[in-house]
Write a structure and sequence with these properties.
heterodimer; A: alpha+beta; FAD/NAD(P)-binding domain; D-Amino Acid Oxidase, Chain A, domain 2; Arc Repressor Mutant, subunit A; eight-stranded mixed sheet; five-stranded antiparallel sheet; B: alpha/beta; Immunoglobulin-like; 3 domains; seven-stranded mixed sheet; 9 helices
Amino acid sequence: MYDVVIIGAGVTGSAVARELSRYEMNICVVEKEEDVCCGTSKANSGIVHAGFDARPGSLKAGLNVQGSRKMARLARELDIPYRQNGSIVICFEEAKLGELERLKSNGQANGVSGLEIITGTRMKGIEPNISSRVKGLLYVPSGAIICPFKLTMALAENANVNGVEFKFDTGVSGIEKIASGYLLTTSCGMIKTRSVVNAAGVYADTFHNMVSDDKIEILARKGEYCLLDKKAGNFIERTVFQLPTRLGKGVLVTPTVHGNLLIGPTAYDTPDKEGTQTTAAGVREVIMKAGLSADDLPLRQVITSFAGLRAHAAHDDFIIGEVEGAEGFFDVAGIESPGLSSAPAIGEMVADLVVKKYQPVKKKRFIAERRDVVGIAGKSMDEINQLIQNCPEYGNVICRCESITEGEILDAIHRPLGAKSLDGVKRRTRAGMGRCQSGFCAPGVIEILARERKLDRLEITKSGRESKMLSGYDKDQL
Amino acid sequence: MKPIKSYDIVIIGGGPAGLAAAAGSRQNGAERILILERDGVLGGILNQCIHNGFGLHTFKEELTGPEYAARFIAQVKDMDIEYKLNTMVMNISSDKKILAINRQDGMFEIQAQAVILAMGCRERSRGALNIPGFRPAGIYSAGTAQRLVNMEGLMPGKEVVILGSGDIGLIMARRMTLEGAKVKVVAEVMPYSGGLKRNIVQCLDDYGIPLKLSHTVIDIDGRERVRGVTLAQVDENRRVIEGTEEYIPCDTLLLSVGLIPENELSDQLALEMVPATSGPAVNERLETSLAGVFACGNVLHVHDLVDDVTQEALLAGKHAAAYVDAGAKESDMLSLIELKGTDGVRYTVPRYINPLKMEDTLTVRFRVEDVFENQFISVYLGDERIQHLKKRVLAPGEMEEIKLKKEILLAVQNPEIMTIKVEEG
């Protein structure tokens, strides 16, 4: 019997888990995928929005601004790559400069500080490479970027270190109200719990609707992106948003904390909640629209493209709270953009709700800090040699594009909630995220994973379940 | 800090180019030579090329890749040339300090008088092509699959579609078939193959594997493992022709869609690069825009035949040795003839020639950008045509070469530009 079961190990579920792990409670996170950060949390813009565009008074507005303010400290505490690079919203039409004014006052109403409208030659001072067609821009100095994988993993790892159990490959198929709380039917058996936190992303409606007659609907809204080589990473310094134009909603161009350039997303509703495939039309749209933001954007340097699904609620706001008529069942639903930015605040808000209801005791020893995988990038020669002396595997470079060593991969595998698959290694270390997209390192990572997990190489997967990398040994089929 | 070791010549990469460059350096008197190799053995990509057909020009016999490599490895060992394995070069500075890392030495710095870049190339990935669809397991570059099958005894899949008809893709169609997989089709977006004719015959035709020209993959199906791909025909502008889509069930997609010289280190050195080759610009001595830094093999431009790599690398080694012997002085990229490919010629190597410094005969290698039949390759020095050679077939997949004579170049007064072009008559 758990006190709390959290459904979903995305950024929201992980943030709630971490906040609740400050208390003496028996907590479990159930996740249908093989790892944390496998859904929306892994495929988004990696932006910490300042909070200027949500409707004042909405949950989105309040939690975004709070989350954004908490993020820098959280990033330090949990050792997450984060950079306050500032955002700009660019406007291509004189007639629409009023829209920037509206955004600015909206942002001020939300409590975002430092907003400034800039026109003329000063614009190039803010962002030298923006298109010469830009007529004016809103400068948002508090905008920032973060690694969405590391944010999610850090929250989950830290929760785990503080006693939260994680059950992976555990899909929930039924929730039944029982006297003591809820009985969950899962792919790995029945789970009893006093309360449930529904942080199931695009599936949050499914679970909500199992316990409530007041039905909700969560739509999957696809966003496609292209990621550019690190050679293009310095092309833009700020996160560049576009005001909507005749072509519809704009796309953003942003550096990532790891030094790549990211462009996207599109926004189309899809009936398929697993439909993360990219499309030719989507990628074309991203490339065409991103090209409007900057002159000579190096669009030939795309190294990969991907799509994520936003969990969109019909009324366009987050749904957070105890569900009426379902005592102890807490929704954290409709967490689309600015969900990543809001995660630290959402975690606290949901934890508050649970704590108020059950009055658990605060832990005497909560471990607030977590250290990221130690890598050689950015370290001095002496520091690197120290690492190699303690662990010679740090002298063995496995991923040449990102200079990732075997030492880092071992760390990723053996740390709390360690990597089990190639994607797990990739999201924890960046091995395979570079320009060759794992062509060089995949055989090496398969070998290390098999050795460390004591598995045959044929068992190693890209991302769990049936995603096996290899089909057999030579001549098996002859 | 450990004391900095110094060498006359440091060679980055111990594949066919690096090995021949080392031999060429030694044969021409260089003493302290070091090869840095990131793999656990010398020989580079040849170790996974277990098919035959190597060495027809160099040794007048047909060797496998490992056999070809073994001859050069033996030579390097006979010559007592130093090498470090499992060693990755992280950085080269313009004063030729090289930063490298391995398990035994940790991170260490070495000082070179001359550097020979021989890092080879890498394969273009799915992402660079922007093939839409899911991102399941089962998508490999052909070279990665070749490593798995030939060196590790592992099969990437059972039912295979290959996109791209580059040589590695063709070779892998045969290898996968021989190891028990079913290769359903090789699709090529261009109206001609990018591979050697002999490979199409020996690797596809002999096994009844269809080659679909002007076809490409427009969708990848399967969330966890590849379940199938959609092929479609493309028009002359490589745009998909609607109505030609065909779904092919398979569990594996191999990509053989181009090789890219691996020039991360060249970028660190801020060398002048040639967009058409993605390699550094070199002169007749295979010296880059930074004096004392030489380049050869696939890092310079992608070759079809290892024999050509060997010839090129031997010369790079020879010139690097001469550079060290002459006291490592600045070279003069000025007052050179600039060599240009035009009218159907995509690029030339070298890019610059100094007639005073060239050897009596210089081999210029180049590729054409389309298929041509019964045309001429012409070489112009300024306005004067100095060579005119009839060619029955010219194709982008087959590297061409011409020989230039020093006496002819010296005879022309102050030429600045030399052009190589395809002409009708």
